[in-house]
Amino acid sequence: MEDSMNFIDDVEIVKEFLTESNDHMDEIESRILELENNPEDMDLINNIFRPIHSMKGSAGFLGLQDIGKVSHELETLLDEARKSKIIITPEIIEILYEGVDILKKLRESVALKVDNKNASEDVIDYHTLLSKIGSILGKSPNAVQQKDIQIEPSQKKHLGEILLETGDINKDQLEMALQEQEQGQGQGQRLGEILVEKGIITPEKITSALKTQSVAGKPSCETVKVDTQKLDNLVNLVGELVIANALISAALGNSNNDTNKNLSHLNKIVKDIQDQVMCMRMVPLKATFQKMVRLVRDVSAKVGKKVRLEISGEGTELDKTVIEEIGDPLVHIIRNSIDHGIEAQNERISLGKPAEGLVQLNAFHRGGNIVIEIEDDGKGLCKEKLLKKAIEKGLIEDGAILYDQQIYNLIFAAGFSTAEKVTDVSGRGVGMDVVKKNVERLRGKVEISTTKGKGTKFSIKLPLTLAIIDGMIVQVGTEKYIIPMLSIEKSIRPKKEDVSTVQQRGELINVRGSLLPVVRLHNLYNVQPKKTNPWEALILIVEGEGRRCGILVDDLLGQQQIVIKSLGEQFQNSRGISGSAILGDGHVGLILDVGGIMSMALN
Prior knowledge:
Mean pLDDT: 79
Number of domains: 5
CATH architecture of the largest domain: 2-Layer Sandwich
Number of helices: 20
CATH topology of the largest domain: Heat Shock Protein 90
Largest sheet: 6 strands, mixed
Strand order of the largest sheet: 10-14-15-13-12-11
Distance between the termini: 53 Å
Strand content: 15-25%
Structural class: alpha+beta
């Protein structure tokens, strides 16, 4: 790559460009998808032209020549379409897609350089793309490739003008540097490099002028970009404030009326601050969902099917960290829905279905969590086929009795696939395994519902944020533990006759005809309980990693929002524990990982 950033410390400006260009490319891609269906819509052509034009200008003054060349030629192509000199054809749509993919690769290479990471050694070849554009526009390929990209004077102020206005250089110094640059004595150097080399100005002054140049002409807005690390620090401080507030409230709980009134007011303020801080990290799902439109188009074309994606709830907001992690699971589920779920076109017609398959992507709030649903109108999951494959793989024993949900959850097992052959779309048995792991790492859960011949629905339930969870505080002896509400189905006090002991399977409890294993927390963590008989204590029915069990506890102390604290590196790999929290009485409570507890107790 020719792009370089080596003469001044302009990393912050490049980072701003990377953020803006990422937004531009998401917008461009979604507009191209619309243009494919409405090739004569001039508004869409203009809406694609503008962000590419902005990227070209920004790349030009930053010296990112490769990005500048590609965006310039795409801009030229679109300008011809704007002037009605060419019409938008499927060939041009493919070129636009190819251009966006190349710009993404070039952007990623620059991002790796900024982060001081080694970029891929593979050369990003965009000359074939430029030649295609050149042939459409009637140009020779060499003319396209060697064309210098200039920034229009109207776009930004020249660097020299800004330095003159600030008084950092005088007119004679500027004319001397410009003359040297024009005569070629600067050996291809930019104006700033020449001025620094001559000792006329410091690199810091150039950096300041470039920042001024980068924001010149931009419309003023009412938003401020904040580093995510600063937001994380603020979230942590608010977490400490919540804990301190709980401790003060507990200590002064029996004070006089005036004190209680003031405490109540303080609680409200702290809660409002907490809500506002958490909102600052919330990002709409729109950008993530829009990327799936392109995915559906590409995958359906690759497997030879006609599939349409319907999106709803894209305005639903999630924590930025969760948004970044949820993309991969969505990709795997949607690819599987198209490849395995949606039938071939002729098969759909013979079944009386529309020739075009449908995948619906929806997001909404439910019970303090976010639910993302991916539903297709395909053939659904075949229980018999899943069971047969699981027995072949040795995942279950022949003759084992499984409930429907347990059978469907088999597709999440590592290496499990019902595909007849491995393709570049699916069949290796790794995708759905990734889905399960990624969702559970986000403290979420994924459920499957399916009807044979009608389709399949995947429901991903996620917490709004990773910093705070809704938890049930339980007591075992003198210890207090926290179980995430997302994992709890219900709590019961069983009858004596519902509890039984089975050889080699341990203690079991009968819950509406289902026999579930009982896990005694006091045995796992070596605690002296107050109640040892299940019919005297309480049992929480929980679900994790596709399995259910009953957890025996002395008592339930109540549900509350818990600020999660890391246990540190020393206890990072502790099984059955996902974190800790400081409770209202000042004591530390361990947050239990239900899946880990079942692995410890039942395997």
